[in-house]
Amino acid sequence: MLAKIDRKNISKKFAIFNSLLKKKKLVYLDNAATTQKPNKVINSIKEYYSNINSNVHRGAYYLSNKATEKLEYSRVKIKNFINAKYSHEIIFTSGATESINLIANSISSLIKEKDEIIIPYSEHHSNIIPWQILCKKKKALLKIIPIDYNGNLKLDYFKSFISNKTKLISLSHVSNALGVINPINDIIDEAKKYNTLVLIDGSQAISHIPINIQKINPDFYVFSIHKMYGPTGIGVLYGKEDILKLIPPYKYGGEMIDKVSFEETTYSNLPFKFEAGTPNIGGIISTIDAIAFIEKYNIKNIKTYEDKIINYAIKLFTSIKGIKIYGEEKNRSSIISFNIKKIHPFDVGKILDNFGVAVRTGNHCAQPIMDFFSIPGTIRISFAIYNTFEEIDYLYKIIIKIIKLIDRF
Ligand code: PMP
């Protein structure tokens, strides 16, 4: 049965919201960095180490089989959550960063001199540097899709420079620095005309926007479990079966082999070919509860709720003289990036901290876009299911106080 999104009820499910922090109630607005974890997820990790702890995929005994069963069920749960075709298209990694690095390494053999890779201007460093390194190594060209002052991609430019030389396009579903939702469907449609692979970084979409992978139809979709109410240290790489079969692994060792001799080694089938070494078993198992938490409220209802909060916050903040909000007003998800006149974002973050409000300040691992706006960084607030309209009112009042204080000097 679907549960109603009601803060009182939801907070009870998170230990962190049930105690005071420096004598203040925590107002947590840094969900784009990582979400808080429900008690059920924390308990699931404890349960694994207390009662199931053993290694997976290699034991003949009860505990190992149980751990393996649960780990594989987590894979199925993720497959169903994003509506992938097969569970062997779900590869466990350590995070979105590793998922992107995996592809950048593994597709290396498909890239030749003078080939091209395209990324937008507004990407997280983890979706810039792996491609920069790959292009350098293969003498290929990294092309950048420019953005306008609302943070929207300039699609006409993109269409003018994509060609048969373009081997891969990699872009975020939602920009972590601005919250702008990128036109991934248009990009994928265009890419298909040139047989170009597309990787979508879903880090900022996965717990906010319903994902139907078969409908979106990218070649790869990556995300981190810690941004969807699960633990840190686990990521997902979704890849289409045919392309995952085609490309080689990038990590080598136990778990991923079929036969090893000193003359030759052959690899396991999917998904194990990409999963060398012992994974974060307890964390992966607890992901079952993280997804169950989202499903309990329904991702569509979460989106509707978060959209209402974000629209409310934008309306309030745009009414304040002295605030500059970055990024498209309408086409955004779960993130607002802004600055207050004459005051460094870091100082605002420190003042808010004194009021119990946790926000992120800085360049958000997206230096090129900060350079584009000629700013050192922004104050970023980002939402999850447990945030409330009252918290926005509280933040609004503190910001008014800060601005009044600045105006006195
Ligand atoms: N891409 C985007 C858009 C992100 O927001 C982040 C995290 N801030 C990452 C990639 C990297 O995620 P992780 O550190 O979990 O690997």
TrEMBL record:
Ranges for domain Aminotransferase class V: 27-395
UniProt cross-references to Pfam families, sorted A to Z: Aminotran_5 (PF00266)
Enzyme's top EC category: transferase
Record's keyword terms, sorted: Pyridoxal phosphate, Transferase
GO molecular function: cysteine desulfurase activity; pyridoxal phosphate binding
NCBIfam families: sufS
Protein name in the entry: Probable cysteine desulfurase
Native organism taxonomy: Bacteria, Pseudomonadati, Bacteroidota, Flavobacteriia, Flavobacteriales
